[in-house]
Design brief:
The chain has ten helices and 16 strands. It is an alpha/beta fold.
Length: 360
């Protein structure tokens, strides 16, 4: 197996060179002509270099809570991956995952007081968001979801995420590796966050990782971990959940469900059904879930999914198949090892941006 993987990697290496050259030329082009975000409200980008999940959604939620708690009016601009629509759309009470994407829908439902918009062209999206409120605001911010490679816009603050178990410094450019561009693209970041760390990561280990990443003088490096909340019933609010002595069917359509699976396995036996990232669940998929659930040999059993998957399932025309089935989703949150330092870095940036605009 290892020989086969090595052979495939060697064959893909020339393609990686051509891909990397194309990305490099593109980056040089945009570095010479890129416009800033909008000038009135700070635009904060949250993204990564690597394909796959690095925890963008919970980190975006963290920023929404942090900025909202400081009295900032927050807007979120996303591409709206997986939606069937095109162009600029604002989330509202009638929005579905097929309209705006599962992640923007989740954000709209969790944070109804913020503005959530989707647009493939972030520059156009920022312009249209600005047009909604033509008066300059000193108390607003725009979060740009997964915008690190969207070079038409230069964010006012660029946050780069890299996963603890898959640091970008250990990876290579597609298709030989999983990086969307050269590692040197990390230079554009103002803040680098090592995500999905073990909850108890020693200072010595953090220092070792810091040495390997070797951030530039203008960059700040932080470490975060995922905290799992109690399961929430998806279809039947009256159902109760117990982690212990339960047999669970984990249904996931996210880039990397392995950490979630390990969390559930701490107290339960877990059967796994994995689907592609942002998968739209069909009638056949739902029937397969029911069969797998009914085949679990336990009197205490449940189906568990992620919060993002729940957004697609709850709006599914096939949800009636799960009436009275114990089906739960598990919300997650981010915790920083240096929380006060991170919070102050973000809030000071926002304060300085507002002051500089006021003086201008």
């Amino acid at each position: 197996m290892k020989t086969l993987q090595l052979t495939i990697a060697i064959l893909l290496f020339p393609l990686s060179i051509w891909y990397a050259v194309g990305v490099a030329v593109r980056n040089i082009y945009y570095s010479r002509r890129t416009k800033t975000a909008n000038g009135r409200q700070p635009a904060i980008s949250i993204g990564n270099l690597r394909m796959g999940g690095t925890g963008k959604t919970p980190h975006t939620e963290y920023l929404i809570r942090l900025l909202g708690g400081s009295g900032t009016a927050v807007a979120l601009l996303s591409r709206g991956y997986g939606r069937k629509t095109k162009g600029f759309l604002l989330a509202d009470a009638s929005s579905k995952a097929s309209d705006i994407g599962d992640e923007p829908l989740m954000m709209h439902r969790k944070f109804p007081d913020i503005t959530v918009a989707v647009c493939e062209d972030r520059n156009e999206g920022l312009r249209l968001l600005s047009a909604l409120n033509p008066q300059p605001s000193a108390t607003g911010a725009v979060l740009l979801d997964d915008c690190y490679q969207h070079r038409k816009v230069t964010p006012d603050l660029n946050i780069l995420l890299t996963q603890y178990s898959d640091l970008y410094v250990d990876d290579h450019v597609l298709p030989f590796g999983n990086l969307r561009e050269f590692r040197s693209g990390s230079r554009r970041a103002d803040i680098i966050i090592v995500t999905k760390c073990p909850p108890y990561l020693s200072t010595r280990k953090r220092d070792t990782i810091s040495h390997r990443i070797n951030p530039f003088p203008h960059q700040r490096l932080f470490f975060s971990c995922i905290s799992y909340s109690d399961p929430v019933p998806l279809f039947s609010p009256h159902l109760q959940f117990s982690h212990f002595n339960a047999q669970l069917l984990l249904v996931s359509g996210i880039a990397n469900p392995e950490p979630f699976k390990r969390h559930l396995e701490r107290h339960s036996t877990v059967a796994n059904m994995e689907f592609p990232d942002h998968h739209k669940f069909t009638h056949l998929d739902c029937e397969m879930m029911l069969r797998r659930f009914n085949n679990l040999k336990s009197d205490s059993k449940a189906i568990v999914t992620t919060e993002k998957d729940a957004m697609r399932l709850i709006d599914s025309p096939h949800r009636h198949l799960f009436d009275d089935i114990p089906f739960f989703y598990v919300p997650i949150e981010v915790k920083f090892f240096e929380q006060n330092d991170f919070d102050n870095t973000i809030l000071n940036f926002f304060h300085n941006f507002a002051n500089s605009n006021h003086k201008a």
